[in-house]
Amino acid sequence: MSVIAANLQDVNGRIAAAAQQAGRPAGAVALLAVSKTFPDGAVREAFAAGQRAFGENYVQEGVAKVVALADLREQIAWHFIGPLQSNKTRLVAEHFDWVHAIDRLRVAERLSAQRPAGMAPLQVCIQVNISDEASKSGVAPEQALALAQAVAALPGLRLRGLMAIPEPAADAAAQRLPFAALRALLGSLREAGLDVDTLSMGMSGDMEAAIAEGATLVRIGTAIFGSRPAPAPHG
Ligand SMILES: *Cc1c(COP(=O)(O)O)cnc(C)c1O
User: Fold this and answer.
1) Could you state, in order of their start, the residue ranges of all structural domains in the chain?
2) Which atom of ligand 1 is the closest one to the Cα of 34?
3) CATH no. for 3-222
4) From atom 4 of ligand 1, which residue's Cα is the shortest distance away?
5) What DSSP letter does each residue of the chain carry, written as one string?
6) 94, 108, 180, 223: which could join 204 in a potential S-S bond, CB 3.0 to 4.6 Å?
7) pLDDT tens by residue, the chain, 235 residues
């Protein structure tokens, strides 16, 4: 078995154990394999091991990978999870199935307008700055509902839920607080009448805490593909 296949098995085991511990059904938590910085071959290896959803952070790298893996296009769900500038929306609208980090209406409007007519609506999540850090992206929690309502009205998009990247926390109990806050916020969107079902939260270091608080999708890179080189100046 390849290292990637073994890591995938391990991660799927961690997800299943965390779901069970939280009293949630097996299969309640989807695994998004974050392949940013790793070559096409790594994605093919993960695909061969059964993985079908992949996440990318950088527009050029991500689109190149979608194109290089065109033979598997119908079987893979490609998620764009990085920050997205409004001048780079078109390629994402044309190549991806999901976008996780919507935090401005302008970006959502462009994605909607640029989504090709023959494709299914782009599935999107709104990124919330749940730890309230000045430096991080994401909409303030108080503004999430208004943005969600505006995004839900766009014809080229299908609003699925919320995403967050909390600041690192010291222990499991502290990790759970921002995830609990994001879950509560999703509940308030539902109460306001929005049809949302996705909590995109949890990474290699905090997936158990996220699953305990209701994550429906965890975004895992390092635990599957290994550690990444220092961030490169991708676009
Ligand atoms: C890189 C990245 C991940 C994966 O992080 P790991 O710690 O490697 O699992 C998840 N979500 C986002 C938004 C990322 O940029």
Assistant:
1) 3-222
2) 4
3) 3.20.20.10
4) 221
5) --HHHHHHHHHHHHHHHHHHHTTPPTTSSEEEEE-TTS-HHHHHHHHHTT--EEEE--HHHHHHHHHHTGGGGGG-EEEE-S---GGGHHHHHHH-SEEEEE--HHHHHHHHHHS-TTSPPEEEEEEB-TT--TTS-SB-GGGHHHHHHHHHT-TTEEEEEEE--PPP-SSHHHHHHHHHHHHHHHHHHHHTT----EEE---TTTHHHHHHTT-SEEEESHHHH-PPPSPP---
6) 223
7) 899 999 999 999 999 999 999 999 989 999 999 999 999 999 999 999 999 999 999 999 999 999 999 999 999 999 999 999 999 999 999 999 999 999 999 999 999 999 999 999 999 999 999 987 766 789 999 999 999 999 999 999 999 999 999 998 989 999 999 999 999 999 999 999 999 999 999 999 999 999 999 999 999 999 999 998 776 565 4
Distance 218 CA to ligand 1 centre (A): 9
